[in-house]
């Protein structure tokens, strides 16, 4: 027997499913196709030409300041890893609380999401970023003032150009009240902000937000990675303090699979394109900060993203896994849903046995926010220690001292996208011959 490269088992299954159901596939998680990623890069550790730092007696700092361009009160984070925006509705209230608890323990920020701010996440998040989305669901000027920063979401890596989705089984009484929607009815968020149509309008909107909050809060602009260079230029022109670029490996609570796998560009080239735009404007690490997200899993990913120009990274899918998503001890529960630990992706369905991507009161009880927050904090500490270890090996006393010259690529594709030499050569495809 020989499996077709084109019509493999997954393709045949999807054709059969579409023929039976007559509707496109909606799921959560993120892109599963293989694309060039940080795994395709390696660090050049110090040897004769550079000295490494001793881990037990020489410091390697990890702090980062976000929003120093215009805001009176920029965020001071102890680690360069933040928690991405994920909505209450997509996630349970206990999950939102756990994210805040975990972020607090290590001195970083978390972010709201579509649908507004819950009391739990505000109470348990010392530094909370409030998302302003095209849907305006849950938009509340009081909450804007309660936030520590504001993120204007233009796009998301899993679906640039598309809006959010929340299926009826997750529209509980509380979610419906916060979003001013009927219960149990599928909700589709707008893909375009109603208040502005271009950078000039956005500049006015950002100024309104600054006046509303006394010019205290940093203003982020988040874009899904696609035309990243120009999007970054326009976001800076509009007055953003922080640019958030989300690559195509970024997660989602619910989106059409054709979107997840086929729209946007990988995180790897997006980092360089965004940092190029900031350098072009003379603001890279001089006033405007860059946060990169989409497929960050390890401290090596963190260090490589920073070496390519990011000031910080943001995690979503990895944070949910740290809370307890896809846990092996829930194997029997996953089997009842026709899946297994490590494969569960139906975050849209509302029947998550881990109690994270659900609004079912009984399932939600399975997630202890204190224990889950502790697991997240442990994971964030490991990411930070790994990034420090790699930076020290390159002779750096701060992770922000990492630079593209510390990296080489293992594949031609990664070399071209990250614009670092192919390992063992001086060749950067497309730049020199």
TrEMBL record:
One of its GO terms (biological process) is glutamate biosynthetic process. Keywords: Oxidoreductase. Belongs to the glutamate synthase family. Residues 70-324, 351-396 form the Glutamate synthase domain. Residues 102-124 are annotated as: Disordered. One of its GO terms (molecular function) is glutamate synthase activity. The lineage of its organism: Bacteria, Pseudomonadati, Pseudomonadota, Alphaproteobacteria, Hyphomicrobiales. This is Glutamate synthase domain-containing protein 2. It comes from the Bacteria. Transmembrane segments: none annotated. Gene3D superfamilies: Aldolase class I. Pfam families: Glu_synthase. InterPro entries: Aldolase_TIM, GltB, GltB_archl_type, Glu_synthdom.
